[in-house]
């Protein structure tokens, strides 16, 4: 099973902050059986019983008897059995526009596109705890080398470029960043036999196996470097780059944003950037989300409020629609899921523990409005740079701004995830199954296939973030200046090798990027008894 936080996938998480099922939590009653069910059987039963009440497409599911959760026992690994069961649950709902499951994953057809099961976060905090190589969590903490790589060229003549280095990481502290080139790894030269060298490259940077890696090459200013990176823990800013570009007589703010990390990691950083933009007289924006798979919805709202025009203040930002069972308050199974805040603390009201069943899931109570207090008051054009790694909270920002701003996209088709969910704690697992769909103020939200860019351009890793000659950035600047995107894609030069037939940009070492959206915004409670 592929790790659900890899680039290929992309999903939105909704979470008021609920990690559940501590020992005192009430178990879901299993169906009557003549033999005592195993712990694993009860877990399988619970997953299906929750799906019958809270899954977005719950009305398409069969009965418990027909589905037979306990039949998913083909593997000795219970996690594999549970993921097989969840996959089966997601096959019943068919998207009429494709005649495939809404959760069909074209990149990994044997896996779900949105729903997944994850191990519990030991601390109980609502933050992504990296469980794979080269990850930075939604709390901004990393413990790796901090690199993402791509190969550009032909199989026999290629260069390895940094797509990015995570701020604060060993690679970034060594002065390395996007568009720098690696020519040798651990004393071995690379660049002439991609098919036989790619595994060597990936293994060298796999921090689950190695604590050091020695690399040498050239920086983008053509100076040589030779450094040894040592894996370490670090705090990372979510901002790869921010700058003000001057083009066509306009001051254009550029922001490359890594992830919608928690408020402590993102809010002040975003405020600082936009305060700089305002002081510089920025009139238009380029927001680079090409590697941003999402994160906390509160941070997405924060960014929307910084960008939205003052004329949109108080108007609808986006709405969430749950299934009819949840909207009518009939998802009583949620009484078993305690409501927690972002730090993992269980919430109480008048001495009573709150649960997810105390939340109102009506559309009216899950509609969010723009709250403009700072940022750019009257932005002109906003161009988002996107890719297949742009997902969930990133897509939510783009979709929410479209009714109010001249929004365009450049790059490659985004992931496509207009649905979200919250974690259900069952035994020692957190189960995330799609719970709601989101729409903007115009009622648009059916982007299951992702956003097709207005200007299709490859990810030009040979240029740094914010470089006006980088293909996506150049196209964005052209649109802001003229109102028209350039009609052709420029050739990419790689160390003097002109782009030609057989030349490509291929991901090599790719970190485990978070894909999803955690809705930790305050929610309305139903009238408590």
Your description of this structure?
The protein is an alpha+beta fold. It has a domain at 239-420 and 435-479: 2-enoyl-CoA Hydratase, Chain A, domain 1. It is built from 10 helices and 30 strands. It has helices at residues 39-54, 64-67, 78-89, 170-173, 194-204, 263-279, 297-307, 324-327, 393-401, 471-482, and strands at 94-95, 100-101, 116-119, 141-144, 147-154, 157-165, 181-185, 188-189, 212-218, 224-230, 232-235, 239-247, 250-257, 284-288, 294-296, 316-322, 348-349, 352-353, 367-369, 381-386, 406-411, 419-420, 423-426, 429-432, 436-440, 455-456, 493-494, 497-498, 504-507, 516-518. The strands form 9 sheets. Strands 5, 6, 7, 8, 9, 10 and 29 form a 7-stranded antiparallel β-sheet that branches. A 6-stranded mixed β-sheet has the order 12-13-14-20-21-26, sandwiched between helices. A 4-stranded antiparallel β-sheet has the order 19-16-25-22. Strand 12 (239-247) and strand 13 form a beta hairpin. Helix 1 (39-54) runs parallel beside helix 3 (78-89) and helix 7 (297-307) packs parallel to helix 9 (393-401).
């Amino acid at each position: 099973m592929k790790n659900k936080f890899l680039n290929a996938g992309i999903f939105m998480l909704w979470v008021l902050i609920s990690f559940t099922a501590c020992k005192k939590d009430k178990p879901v009653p299993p169906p009557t059986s003549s033999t005592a069910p195993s712990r694993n059987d009860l877990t399988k039963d619970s997953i299906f019983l929750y799906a019958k009440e809270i899954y977005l497409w719950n009305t398409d599911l069969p009965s418990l008897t027909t589905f037979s959760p306990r039949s998913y026992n083909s593997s000795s690994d219970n996690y594999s059995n549970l993921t097989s069961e969840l996959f089966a649950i997601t096959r019943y709902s068919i998207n009429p526009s494709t005649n495939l499951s809404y959760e069909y994953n074209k990149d990994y057809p044997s896996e779900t596109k949105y729903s997944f099961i994850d191990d519990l976060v030991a601390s109980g905090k609502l933050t992504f705890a990296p469980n794979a190589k080269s990850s930075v969590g939604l709390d901004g903490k990393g413990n790796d080398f901090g690199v993402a790589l791509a190969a550009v060229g032909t199989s026999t003549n290629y260069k390895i470029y940094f797509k990015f280095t995570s701020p604060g990481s060993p690679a970034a502290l060594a002065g390395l960043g996007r568009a720098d080139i690696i020519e040798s790894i651990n004393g071995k030269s690379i660049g002439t036999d991609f098919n036989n060298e790619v595994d060597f490259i990936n293994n060298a940077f796999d921090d689950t196996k190695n604590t050091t890696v020695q690399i040498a090459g050239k920086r983008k200013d053509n100076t040589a470097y030779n450094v040894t990176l040592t894996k370490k823990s670090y705090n990372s800013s979510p901002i790869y780059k921010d700058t003000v570009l001057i083009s066509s007589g306009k001051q254009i703010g550029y922001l490359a944003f890594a992830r919608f990390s928690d408020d402590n990691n993102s809010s002040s950083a975003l405020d600082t950037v936009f305060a700089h933009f305002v002081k510089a007289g920025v009139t238009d924006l380029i927001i680079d989300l090409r590697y941003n798979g999402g994160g906390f919805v509160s941070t997405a709202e924060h960014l929307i409020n910084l960008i939205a025009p003052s004329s949109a203040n108080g108007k609808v930002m986006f709405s969430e629609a749950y299934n009819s069972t949840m909207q009518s308050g009939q998802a009583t199974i949620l009484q078993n899921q305690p409501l927690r805040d972002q730090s993992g603390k269980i919430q109480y009201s008048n001495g009573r523990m709150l649960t997810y069943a105390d939340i109102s899931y009506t559309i009216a109570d899950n509609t969010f409005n723009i709250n403009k207090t700072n940022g750019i008051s009257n932005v002109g054009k906003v161009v988002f740079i996107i890719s297949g790694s742009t997902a969930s909270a990133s897509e939510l920002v783009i979709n929410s701004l479209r009714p109010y701003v001249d929004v365009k996209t450049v790059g490659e088709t985004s992931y496509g995830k207009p649905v979200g969910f919250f974690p259900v704690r069952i035994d020692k697992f957190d189960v995330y199954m799609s719970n709601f769909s989101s729409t903007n103020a115009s009622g648009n939200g059916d982007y299951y296939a992702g956003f097709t860019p207005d200007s299709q351009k490859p990810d030009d890793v040979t240029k740094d973030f914010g470089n006006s000659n980088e293909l996506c950035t150049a196209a964005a600047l052209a649109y802001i200046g003229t109102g028209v995107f350039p009609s052709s894609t420029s050739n990419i030069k790689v160390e003097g090798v002109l782009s030609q037939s057989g030349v490509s940009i291929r991901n090599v070492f790719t970190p485990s990027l978070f894909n999803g959206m955690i809705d930790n915004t305050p929610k309305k409670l139903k009238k408590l008894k």
